[in-house]
C-alpha cells in the first residue's frame, strides 16, 4: 500500500467521524419526527464519534472535542428536561462563544487558530489574523442564523412571507443543520487560496504534521 493511501485514509475516516453524529441525528428525526428520540441518537453517536477519533489518533483533536462536548452537554440537558430547546441552543452557544473568542483575540494580536493548527498549517501571522477574523464572522453568522431558524414564530413568518404554506419548525431547523454542514465545507474550501498563498516552507523536509481534525 502506498504512503499516499496511508495519508489519505485517516482524513476520510475523520470526516466520517466528525459528521457521523449529525447525519445520524438528522436521519433519526426525519424517521421518527420526534426531536427527543433524535437527541438520544445524537448523544450516542457523539460518544461513538469521540471514541473512534481517540482510537484512530490516540488523542482527542481540539475542535471535534469541543463540538462533541457541546453536543453531549446540550443533548443530555434535552433528554433530562424533555425539552428540545437545549439541543437547538447548542449551535447558538457554541458558535457564539467561538466567535467571541476569535474576534476578541484580534485586538490582542493573539490567534487561537495558530495554537490549534500551528503544527499542521504553517502560514504567516498576517494569514492567521485573516483566518481568525473570517472564522470569527462565520461563527457569529451561524449563531445569528440559528436563533432565527430555531424560533417557530420566525420560521412561520418566513414561510408565510414566501407563500410556502405551514412549516414543520423542527423539520426546518433539522434541515438547516444539514445546509449548515454544506456551508461549512464550502467556507472551509474558500480559505484554501489564502492558506496556500501564505504558506511558510520548512527549511528542511520533515514528516507531515498530523491533521487536527478541523
TrEMBL record:
* Keyword flag Zinc: no
Q: How does it sit in the membrane?
A: Multi-pass membrane protein
Principal place of residence: membrane
InterPro entries membership:
YciB (IPR006008)
Q: Which UniProt keywords apply?
A: Cell inner membrane, Cell membrane, Membrane, Transmembrane, Transmembrane helix
Top-rank lineage group of the source organism: Bacteria
Name its cellular compartments: Cell inner membrane
Spans through the membrane: 12-32, 38-56, 63-80, 137-159, 179-196
Q: Does the keyword NAD apply?
A: no
Report the Pfam families cross-referenced here.
IspA (PF04279)
Family in the record: Belongs to the YciB family.
Q: What does this protein do?
A: Plays a role in cell envelope biogenesis, maintenance of cell envelope integrity and membrane homeostasis.
The identity of this protein, by name, is Inner membrane-spanning protein YciB
State the organism named in the record: Brevundimonas faecalis
The UniProt gene name for this protein comes to yciB
Amino acid at each position: 500500500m502506498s504512503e499516499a493511501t496511508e495519508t489519505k485514509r485517516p482524513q476520510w475516516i475523520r470526516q466520517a467521524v466528525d459528521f457521523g453524529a449529525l447525519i445520524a441525528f438528522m436521519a433519526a428525526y426525519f424517521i421518527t419526527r420526534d426531536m427527543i428520540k433524535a437527541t438520544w441518537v445524537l448523544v450516542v453517536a457523539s460518544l461513538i464519534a469521540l471514541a473512534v477519533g481517540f482510537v484512530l489518533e490516540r488523542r482527542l483533536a481540539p475542535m471535534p472535542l469541543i463540538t462533541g462536548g457541546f453536543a453531549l452537554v446540550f443533548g443530555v440537558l434535552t433528554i433530562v428536561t424533555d425539552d428540545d430547546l437545549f439541543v437547538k441552543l447548542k449551535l447558538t452557544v457554541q458558535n457564539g462563544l467561538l466567535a467571541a473568542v476569535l474576534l476578541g483575540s484580534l485586538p490582542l494580536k493573539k490567534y487561537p487558530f495558530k495554537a490549534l493548527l500551528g503544527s499542521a498549517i504553517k502560514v504567516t501571522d498576517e494569514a492567521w489574523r485573516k483566518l481568525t477574523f473570517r472564522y470569527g464572522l462565520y461563527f457569529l453568522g451561524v449563531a445569528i442564523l440559528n436563533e432565527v431558524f430555531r424560533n417557530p414564530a420566525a420560521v412561520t413568518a418566513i414561510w408565510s412571507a414566501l407563500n410556502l404554506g405551514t412549516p414543520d419548525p423542527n423539520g426546518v431547523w433539522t434541515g438547516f443543520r444539514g445546509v449548515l454542514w454544506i456551508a461549512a465545507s464550502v467556507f472551509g474550501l474558500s480559505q484554501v487560496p489564502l492558506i496556500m498563498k501564505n504558506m511558510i516552507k520548512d527549511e528542511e523536509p520533515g514528516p507531515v504534521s498530523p491533521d487536527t481534525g478541523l
